[in-house]
Amino acid sequence: xxxxxxxxxxxxxxxxxxxxxxxxxxxxxxxxTQYQGGASNWTYRLQYRDHDWVLRRPPAGTKAKSAHDMTxxxxxxxxxxxxxxxVPTMIGLCQDASVIGCDFYVMxxxxxxxxxxxxxxxxxxxxxxxxxxxxxxxxxxxxxHRVDPARVGLDALGKxxxxxxxxxxxxxxxxxxxxxxxxxxxxxxxxxxxxxxxxDSGSCVIHNDWRFDNLVLAPEDPTRIVGVLDWELATIxxxxxxxxxxxxxxxxxxDQPLMRMTRRQPTHLPGMRRRCEVVAYYLDxxxxxxxxxxxxxxxxxxxxxxxxxxxxxxxxxKQTRNPAFKNFWILINYFNWRCRSIIRNAx
Length: 347
Fold this sequence. Notes:
The protein has eleven helices and nine strands. It is α+β, with helices and mostly antiparallel strands. The protein folds into two domains: about 10-110, Phosphorylase Kinase, domain 1; about 125-345, Alpha-Beta Complex (Aminoglycoside 3'-phosphotransferase, Chain: A, domain 2). It has a five-stranded antiparallel beta sheet with strand order 1-2-3-5-4, with helices on both faces. Strands 6-9 form a two-stranded antiparallel ribbon. A two-stranded antiparallel ribbon has the order 7-8. β1 and β2 (about 40-45) form a beta hairpin. α5 (about 165-180) packs parallel to α10 (about 295-315), α7 (about 240-245) packs across α10 (about 295-315) and α10 (about 295-315) runs antiparallel to α11. The termini are far apart.
């Protein structure tokens, strides 16, 4: 966590007044810091005298119509909590724009470690620990995919068969809307995805942003997952699409330099499974046997490119001043090359 970034300040007094309508005994002014990992929604830690909470709100500026929906994110987590206890406990949802100008919600902070690009120096993970953490991460994803959407009241999120095709169409449209002059059209990749979209391998609750920096690890055992965060993109869909999206973030130690530049999690460490091993482990445990995983891998990379382009679009149009987004256009060009390479090598 870091001090709040310039231009992303939070009206703490207004938030506290609203929170007191939910928790009347709330006392004092909180210490406020900001989570540095957020590239989409803005996330803050509110440390009151007797409460340690997290606030999530959308960013300023133009955004995709279906993105940054705080009400949806709040309701999904509230519904999942009983069947998937690693979801944070929700405190309250504010839909009154007069408070800070947008919807936001507050939840309990889960104490633990969140892995970023590098493992903290004091964590001391050996190769066996890393393997166990990797296995637990994949098992926790499989556990989510086994939650019955109807039992938790989320079945209405599903739109029926055809999830892979709908996703290709939807993310293609998002890319067109966010495209800037310095990135490729992705025409070849998008056409290939449309032509090779498979039928659904299943239908379940999917997280859609599964990676280590959305997981909280137990302080006393960093191989154990005690929290799963960032449910902005969660929905009902094809589990292999969830796995393919997760694979896009899985950077290995011997990947090409530009791919290694995208690494946001310690998947390069000895003990971590390679991408092919991740897929094999998941398919075996989930009991799924697709003809090929190429579509899901290519889609995951294309989807990541679109997410990066949407973020870069805000930077390009000066809707955010975060310097971390300045060179995203280079990565978007690289992802296009990588998608085409995977397609070519799968023939």
